Amino acid sequence: MYKNKKILVVIPARSLSKGIKNKNIIKLNGKPLFAHSINYAKKSKIVDKIIVSTDSLKYVAIAKKYKAETPFLRSKKLAGDLVPDYPVMYDSLIKSEKFFKFKFDYVVLLRPTSPKRERGLIEKGIKILHARKDATSIRSVVRTYSHPYRHFLINKKGIMKTIIKNIKEPYNIERQQLPKFYFQSGDLEIIKRKTLINGSVSGNNILPLLINNYDSIDIDNINDLKKIKCLN
Q: Does pTM surpass 0.85?
């Protein structure tokens, strides 16, 4: 709890991943992948409940081993490859509130595929979000050096076209004059309850949580897994 506000951590861990079979339970440093997110959440003193949203009874057993709660089994309808975050997070909030019999003010999303996080991100994020009444959510971001002004699309004629509109030749702007851009990492998202109830996983007023010492990797394929193992 933070200033009388209850906090729910949701770790989504479906079993039907295709890029890497059973990716969410693949071993990293001797532990299933999503167990690292459970352990991270357990270190926070302001978290009220930690749940794993999964469609697998095998994953439920693993979650319980690492002291996370599994108050429901995710439906197969919400476990497919193309299911977006919103219905999963909304489902987690509503079913958790029914199970625990109280309402949560903030919902923290910890993706299993980002197991290497800076310390204290939950606390930092909650503090920032709580202080801004106009904000709808917060998410971790990193400075991107693969600048959008240098990105192109190639049309059917094989000609490159800038993706930036209303700026003349943005690809020719000097590096020192380029505006700063940020890319969302998978480390942390925190959503206000009202935002989820109103039909969004982010809302219109998203605050940045800037990660400085960034060596986290969002694990999507075997190469990503190899990279993160090299960092450990």
A: yes
